[in-house]
Specification:
The chain is an alpha+beta fold. The protein has helices spanning 4-9, 11-20, 27-63, 67-103, 141-148, 153-160, 169-189, 203-208, 233-237, 295-313, 359-364, 389-399; strands at residues 123-128, 151-152, 166-167, 193-194, 200-201, 220-221, 227-228, 244-246, 252-261, 280-290, 317-321, 333-341, 346-355, 367-369, 377-378, 380-388, 407-408, 422-423. It folds into two domains: 4-103, Helix Hairpins, CATH 1.10.287; 119-423, BirA Bifunctional Protein, domain 2. It contains twelve helices and 18 strands. It has an eight-stranded mixed sheet with strand order 1-11-12-13-16-10-9-4. Strands 5-7-6 form a three-stranded antiparallel sheet. Helix 3 (27-63) runs antiparallel to helix 4, helix 5 (141-148) crosses helix 12 and helix 7 (169-189) packs across helix 12. The mean pLDDT is 95.
Amino acid sequence: MFDTKWITENPAQFDAGLARRGAEPQAEKIVALDDKRRAHIQKLQDAQSRRNAASKEIGKAMAGGDKDLAEKLKAEVGELKSVIQNANDEQRLIDDQLKELLSAIPNIPLAETPDGANEADNVEARQSGTRPDLGFTPKQHFELGEDLGMMDFETAAGMSGARFVILTGKLARLERAIGQFMLDLQTEKNGYTEVNPPLLVRDQAVYGTGQLPKFADDLFATTDGRWLIPTAEVPMTNMARESIIDEANLPKRLTALTPCFRSEAGSAGRDTRGIIRQHQFWKVEMVSLTTPETSRQELDRMTNCAEDVLKQLGLHYRVMALCTGDMGFGAQLTYDIEVWLPGQEAFREISSCSVCGDFQARRMNARYRPDEGKGTRFIHTLNGSGLAVGRTLVAVMENYQNADGSITVPEVLKPYMGGTSKIEA
């Protein structure tokens, strides 16, 4: 959501930002609708003021014995009540039209966000680590998992359909170990507060973080009007909804390990084998609430926290600055972290860290009270994966596989594996 006052004062700058994202200009429509809303509010206030004044004049006319004037004023008040009621209905309609228009517009990118049309235009920021030299032709994770007898797609499909899996034995424990390791790292080392949030939320929550109304098809809905969370970003960011936080309590850094649910609409034919793209998966999510002055620096910190996981696991990865055409709806600047998968001989996304400015805060009415000065300001929000657990499992399996099909357990995960150092059939 946007500040209509700023758009009115900077229409060309606003449309230029949208043009960078390949979106049509909207400033003229917004300004015209906002002007209409303001004029209508003024008309409504004038009618209310006249009604109040006429009501007082009735008493004076009655006290002075002027019944004719009193009756005339009563008739006027009655007409004004009808005018005000109709005006209130019209104002709600205009407000809804403006909200609908603003809700469908993506966030304006920061100046440093690379311009581009799609993922081919993303810019590499850095790489870390080296690609492993396995000394044999590596398998993909689903081949390893099926050969181990611990990754069952057929049974999962029979009960749930495509894009589900059943993990068993040591492989199931390895996934659990990865999630617990990442959660411990983010809380004990990187200063995030652990949250155990609801997995079902109402419309206002997914609207607040930008999934509604534009991306309803990407979500799973329940029969009682709730949504399964696509990421813990939704409930954790909404913890600030309709609230005012003292600046002294910022930044707030939150993290959660939760199941996530996505319909993967528009992903037909992509990653149909394996667990790269599932309807249900685990993820450690990070959320930060900051002041406007510190949000950009917080993005670098959050990205480093996500990278920390891969460094401790000894995995090769690169950080990509997403271009304007590949960036998410609510983001101003996004860094994707892509891990190297030997079985695919490719980098694949394993984390995405974004700064959203006050885009989500305006939708949620999430504010803070500055230490100095009066009034309140909208907070800035950030979110990032720290990391996607299933994809990290894929990376560990492919990078730590052995020629006999076994998988060596990385050192940092051994304490979570009950002493197991190798997963074998």
